[in-house]
Write a structure and sequence with these properties.
Elements (H helix, E strand, L loop, with lengths): L2 H28 L8 E5 L4 E5 H19 L2
Antiparallel strand pairs: 1-2
Length: 73
């Protein structure tokens, strides 16, 4: 692996970290993760279960699109 390939890998990982950081910082204001229709929450007096189905689907789609942009040759 030469220096040019290492540089490319470092830039891709840096861009991914920047995207994840921006998503975590701005995500709560732009997209109410965990509170979407399709996120299920069940609870009783002493217990609760949260199953974020819609949130997981959206995150999966966004990550797939992002990774395809960077790793497509």
């Amino acid at each position: 692996m030469d220096a040019q390939q290492i540089g490319r890998v470092l830039m891709v990982f840096g861009a991914m970290l920047l995207a994840v950081g921006a998503f975590l910082y701005f995500g709560g204001r732009l997209l109410p993760l965990g509170q979407l229709p399709g996120d299920f929450h069940f609870g009783g007096e002493n217990w609760s279960v949260h199953f974020p189905l819609a949130t997981c689907a959206i995150i999966s789609i966004l990550l797939s699109l992002f990774l395809n942009l960077f790793f497509r040759r």
